[in-house]
Structures are given as C-alpha cells and as structure tokens.
Write a structure and sequence with these properties.
- The protein is α+β, with helices and mostly antiparallel strands.
- It has two domains: 33 residues, no CATH class; 53 residues, no CATH class.
- A three-stranded antiparallel β-sheet has the order 1-3-2, with no helix packed on it.
- The longest helix is centred in the middle third of the chain and has 19 residues.
- It is extended.
Length: 111
C-alpha cells in the first residue's frame, strides 16, 4: 500500500472531462465515473463490506424488508400517486413510499 494510504480509503481522481460511454462501459464494475460539484471524477468502484454490518444497521433490516414488501400491497392508484409525487425528486415512487413507511410521510417537504 502506498505511504499515507489506509485500507478503505477512497482514492478519487479529478478528470478534465468525462470519457466516452464506451470507455465508461469498459471500466464498469472497476471504476465509478461521476460529476461531483461540477467536477468530473473517477474512483475505485465501491465495494460491499460483506455481510457484517453495524448492529444498528442490521436492526433496521426487518423494517426495510417490510416497507419494501408493502409496495406490492398498494393499489395501482396509490402506486401512481407515489410515482407522480416522486417526479423530479431523484427518487422512484417506491423509494418515496419506503421512506414514508420508515420515517413518516410528513418529514419531507410536500411540494
């Protein structure tokens, strides 16, 4: 390991521009290309830490599983409502529904 680097440290490179999709596709699963605060960057693809998580994270798994399952139980009208409400937010309707289920619907702005 190079001096001054620790295991788990994310190495990020600033780019002068985003590469073509062919190059990005060629590195899929190895290098993550994205724009951060208007600057194109690349970093090693994030790796899963495996099955071991903090106790607080593992304690939330059953709640998240139940929240995700509830999407299938919603009527098509409610699913359409969540999908419409999520437009432009960067979330899917299902993501919004899971957040609402886990943390309360009115925690987020209603605009």
């Amino acid at each position: 390991m190079p001096p001054g680097h620790r295991a788990g440290t994310v190495i990020m490179a600033k780019l002068t521009g985003m590469p073509s999709m062919a190059i990005i596709d060629g590195f899929k699963g190895n290098v993550d290309f994205y724009v951060y605060m208007g600057v194109p960057v690349a970093r090693a693809w994030p790796r899963s830490p495996g099955r071991h998580r903090a106790a607080a994270v593992e304690a939330r798994w059953p709640s998240f599983t139940q929240a995700a399952r509830e999407w299938k139980n919603l009527s098509p009208e409610m699913q359409a409502f969540y999908n419409k409400w999520a437009e432009g937010s960067g979330l899917s309707g299902r993501d919004l529904q899971v957040r609402a289920y886990l943390t309360g619907l009115y925690r987020y702005p209603l605009e």
